[in-house]
Amino acid sequence: MFKKLISRRNIAISASIFSFLTATMAQTVERASDSSNSNLFYTDNTFLILLFLCLLFLIIAFFLYRVKSHLDNILHEKTTGKEKPTYYEKSLRPWLQTLNPTITALTIATILGLITFIKAYQFGMNEVGVQQNYSPTQPINYSHKLHAGKLQIDCKYCHSTAEYSKQASIPSANTCMNCHKFVNLRDRYDGKVSPEIDKIYKAVGWDPENSEYIKDYKQKPIEWVRIHNLPDLAYFNHSQHVSVGKVECQTCHGPVQEMDKVYQFSTLQMDWCINCHREKSIDVANNKYYEDLHKKIKLEGKTVYTVEQNGGTECAKCHY
Q1: Of 68, 98, 128, which residue constitutes the final position of a domain?
Q2: Are 184 and 193 in contact (CB under 8 A)?
Q3: Alpha helices of the chain — where are they, by DSSP H?
Q4: Which of 101, 107, 148, 278 is deepest in the core (most CB within 10 A)?
Q5: What is the 3-state secondary structure (H, E, C) of 251-310?
């Protein structure tokens, strides 16, 4: 048995692990010594050093335990003439023999079935149809961080129908051309038009050299990829939220003014919408549409009136 302990395979594995840990620790210590941190002990790599040390000690403890086990087996063989029974033979097998095979199989199947059902339910509720963080590649690398953030262009300048329509609308290329007839960033591209702006010119047929539209040019639509998708069974109206509810774009779409590449910020799941309706209060005092409602809640002594209290969580509000 002792030969098993000192077999070439065990020695090779031990040597490889020890060599890897030694080399990794040496590199980590070298990085730590080069650090400009004034504290000589607590550096950025202190955790890694301690982690490697713990791993090394665990491996040493494991091999010491193996040595002790083999020595115990040798001693047991010499004193009794028989091999020492394993933990399975001594404790586990007798216990397994007391179990009813049918009941055990049914219990295991039930537990596995419950786990599978729970995982499938969670997957169905949180993954299927949920596109949070979805960020597709667009035909033009348009930066909201530049336009909405640095240049502070109002969201509704490009998404012009958000205040009076169900859809917020994708801006037409003509909207882009309002600025980019004159802005082409030649100073950054050695006198040439920016490659991204040139994509707009090719779509609408704009000649930047002569500053005019090309006659009889066959225009091509810019095929933007939609990011925020609601299922057909759910009704959502932008104007109702933007104009009446005074909801900021960032409430649903996140900090768009900080996004170089837009992604879906919110889950857009039903519980997310309902929670907002439960927490969001209606500004009934400054909206003529709610004039009668304002008088009513004043008589009732209420100061806050939520969307939910106004029927905002009724099924038919969004599903009809």
Answers
A1: 98
A2: yes
A3: 2-5, 8-34, 46-80, 87, 93-97, 101-126, 144, 155-158, 173-180, 195-204, 238-239, 249-253, 270-279, 291-299, 315-318
A4: 148
A5: HHHCCHHHCCCCCCCCCCCHHHHHHHHHHCECCCCCCHHHHHHHHHHHHCCCCCCECCCC
**pLDDT tens per residue across all 320 residues of the chain:** 444 444 545 555 555 565 555 555 555 555 545 544 444 455 667 778 888 888 999 999 998 988 888 888 888 788 887 777 777 777 888 888 888 889 989 999 999 999 999 999 988 888 888 889 999 999 999 999 999 999 999 999 999 999 999 999 899 999 999 999 999 999 999 999 999 999 999 999 999 999 999 999 999 999 999 999 988 899 999 999 998 888 999 999 999 999 999 999 999 999 999 999 999 988 888 877 788 888 888 888 888 888 998 889 999 989 97
Tokens at 34, concatenated: 């080069």
Q: Is residue 147 within 8 Å of residue 155, measured between CB atoms?
A: no
Q: With respect to residue 60, please indicate whether it lies within any of the assigned structural domains.
A: yes
253 in any annotated domain: no
Residue 213, H or E segment: strand 212-213
3-state SS class at 269? coil
Q: Please, are residues 265 and 252 in contact by the beta-carbon 8 Å criterion? A: yes
Q: How far apart are the C-alpha atoms of 281 and 309, rounded to whole Å?
A: 9
Provide the domain count of the chain.
Answer: 2
Cα–Cα distance for residue pair 232/318, rounded to 1 Å:
11
Q: Give the pTM.
A: 0.63
Residues forming beta bridges with residue 109, ordered by sequence position: none
Give the chain's length.
320
